[in-house]
Structure formats: C-alpha cells, structure tokens
Amino acid sequence: MGWYYGFKLHLLCNERGELLNFALTRANVDDRNPKVFNDLTKDLFGKLYADKGYISQSLFASLFDRGVHIVTGIRTNMKNRLMDVHDKIMLRKRSIIETINDMLKNVAQIVHTRHRSISNFIVNLLAGIAAYAFYDTKPSINMG
C-alpha cells in the first residue's frame, strides 16, 4: 500500500472487498518476507493473487506446502508459462486492492502529516481500517 511514518501496510482482501487480514511492518521490510506472509495467510487456503513484486520461489514453496497457491504475473525477463484462463482474468482484477488502498488513504484518511506520536499514528490507522469495515459499498468483483 505504501509507507508513512517509517511503516508499510500489507493488506489481504477477498473478492467482495472485505479485508481479511493486515500487517504493519517497518518500511524497509521486503514484501516477500516469509514471516509477514505467514502471519497474513495463517488461516488462508486456496488461491492468492498478487502482483509481480511477490515472485519468489521460496515463498511459493512455503505457501504451497500450507495449501495456498500464489498466482502472480510474469516479469518481462521471464519465460512465458501456461496459465489458467481464470487466473489470468483474476490477475487483471487487482484493481480491487488498489481501490481499497485509495479508499483508506483518501476517505478514511489514514495517511496525513499531523501525527505527533507513534500511538496517534497507530490509533488513526486502526480507526481507518475499522471504518472501512463498516462501509456499505466496498469494491468487489462480479463472479457470476
């Protein structure tokens, strides 16, 4: 999602736009950090759609052993590989997480420069995430 105050917010959502889990890390922590992904996907199974920045063989293997199949696009320097049509379509629907990020930043205002303490930053972040959970209209994917 981006970083502020030296932190980075990692979000996990479903096709209905509901936040399933989130993690807050220092800004210098790699997105593919196994501990972050293990915490985010603790009770998750099935397919997880992510962008190309999450391509990592070790991450894929550790998640696959736990029943999570991470699906990413391919980078320009990679060989083409055969991908299921449904997975290819779902990768194009990543705009749902970008819309959630936009709503958290602009509507819930979790990013602003008036924080004078770390606790105020955390309270503002948690309040924004809680407020998002109560939105009536969340971005979603029409699956049928």
Automatic annotation (TrEMBL):
The keyword Repressor does not apply. InterPro entries: Tnp_DDE_dom. It holds the Pfam family DDE_Tnp_1_3. The chain crosses the membrane at residues 118-135. Residues 1-118 form the Transposase DDE domain. It comes from the Bacteria. Keywords: Membrane, Transmembrane, Transmembrane helix. NCBIfam families: transpos_IS982. This is Transposase. It comes from Alloprevotella rava F0323.
